[in-house]
Amino acid sequence: MPHIDYYFSTISPYTYLVGGRLQEIARRHAATVTYKPFDILGAFSRTGGQPVPQRHPSRIDYRAQELPRQARKQGMPLNMKPAHWPTNAAPSSYAVIAAQKAGGGDLPQLIQRLLACCWVEEKDIAEDQVIKTCLSESGFDPTLADSGLLTGAEVYAANLEEAVSNGVFGAPFFICDDGQKFWGQDRLEDLDLHLKGEL
């Protein structure tokens, strides 16, 4: 049974654009997925990346064209200038980590709800009530937002170290158990083909 380690950021628009496609791919190939939220800005500083405002204007201009194109391609709404971005990704990431450990709910839905709150619904996913609502909507105990803080902080920090050591430099990033790596929501087709044995 193949396995995928999925490194992502809860404030990444490209992670938002993954939508439900990773789960569809995993189902087709009976693959398991471990969800690993990590500090994307921490990864940038250690792997040569830069936060959006610090990038060259040509890169910023391209991003402003590419994101809406990709959103249209997936039929997904996207607000290019959300009211609460950037925001602190740690609290929402802690909640994802706690939910994955607790089980019992729909983890992919939780992740997508948090991302949609940021990139569509003008909500601040660093706010406790926003996180608790997303947990509840996804079938998890909303108190995980409080009880999972310590473990969440430890795992979140460990995920960053693991990501950097495994060659992760952006989000979303997918690593198969055979070592093959795929960066970006636009590489999901390649991930699918690889799991089919065709790439």
Explain what you see:
By secondary structure, this protein is an alpha+beta fold. It has a single domain, classed as Glutaredoxin (3-Layer(aba) Sandwich). Helices cover 52% and strands 10% of the residues. It contains ten helices and four strands; from the N terminus they run E-H-H-E-H-H-H-H-H-H-H-E-E-H. The chain has a four-stranded mixed β-sheet, with helices on both faces. Strand 3 and strand 4 (181-183) form a beta hairpin. The model has no long low-confidence stretch (mean pLDDT 97).
Topology, element by element:
Layout: E1 3-8, H1 13-16, H2 21-28, E2 32-37, H3 40-47, H4 57-74, H5 90-102, H6 107-119, H7 128-137, H8 144-147, H9 149-165, E3 173-176, E4 181-183, H10 188-196
Parallel strand pairs: 1-2
Antiparallel strand pairs: 1-3, 3-4
Helix pairs in contact: 5-6, 5-9, 6-7
Provide tags for this entry:
4 strands; 10 helices; Glutaredoxin; 199 residues; alpha+beta
Concise account of the structure shown:
By secondary structure, the protein is α+β, with helices and mostly antiparallel strands. Helices cover 52% and strands 10% of the residues.
